[in-house]
């Protein structure tokens, strides 16, 4: 009888392990942080084949700085993501339209300066963001700013900042042109930075180039990055 009970108990434990295994795998797959040489690597992925990707990334990071580069549009359009070390693409995997990597330097900036690290990664005084320059914004002669159109972006907002301080966030999903009034009414006279931010993969990322200007006249110095 004891043997029978032990057998049933063993089967119950095995069944419990099997039932919770998908949950454990999902949690492990969803978010893994790797701390190496002052870099925090946040790796998001969905494919079973990506199980060993964090360990690969950690091993590669010993040789140099890991940065991520994503090719293709966001949303439902498939793309690929690659791990890059010293401008050499080491590993490429399909990301099924999802950003698999959010890789950034952990607050290694000197406010209020912005320190560009890579075309798809930057740190700034207003926080650490991963930039995906999908939108192009343009400063017009009347100091208004226009953006091009792309579908599938949630919580698209105009961001206005000055000296590393965020001055204004304005809803941009239905607004192709930002009136200069909104830029001029906040902060103090002088250079201000305007760019677009969108909600993506549980966070917010910069999705456009940056317009930097005093927004007084086109004769004044203007810089776009």
Task: Write up what this structure looks like.
With 225 residues, the chain is an alpha+beta fold. The chain folds into two domains: 31-104, no CATH class; 108-224, Immunoglobulin-like. The chain has three helices and 18 strands. Strands 12, 13, 15, 16, 17 and 18 form a six-stranded antiparallel beta sheet that branches. Strands 1-2-6 form a three-stranded antiparallel beta sheet. Strands 3-4-5 form a three-stranded antiparallel beta sheet, with helices on one face. Strand 4 and strand 5 (88-94) form a beta hairpin. The N and C termini lie far apart (76 Å).
Total strands: the figure is 18
* CATH class descriptor name of the largest domain: Mainly Beta
Provide the helix percentage.
10-25%
CA distance, first residue to last residue: 76 Å
The SS-based structural class is alpha+beta
Largest sheet: 6 strands, antiparallel
The average pLDDT value, as a whole number, equals: 58
Number of helices: 3
Radius of gyration using CA atoms only: 23 Å
**CATH architecture verdict of the largest domain:** Sandwich
Principal-axes geometry comes out as elongated
Layout of strands and helices, then pairs:
Blueprint: H1 2-30, E1 32-36, E2 39-43, H2 53-61, E3 67-71, E4 80-85, E5 88-94, E6 101-105, E7 115-118, E8 121-124, E9 127-129, E10 137-139, E11 145-147, E12 154-162, E13 165-171, E14 177-178, H3 180-184, E15 192-200, E16 203-206, E17 211-213, E18 223-224
Antiparallel strand pairs: 1-2, 2-6, 3-4, 4-5, 7-8, 8-9, 10-11, 11-14, 12-13, 12-15, 15-16, 15-17, 17-18
What is the compact description of this entry?
By secondary structure, the chain is an alpha+beta fold.
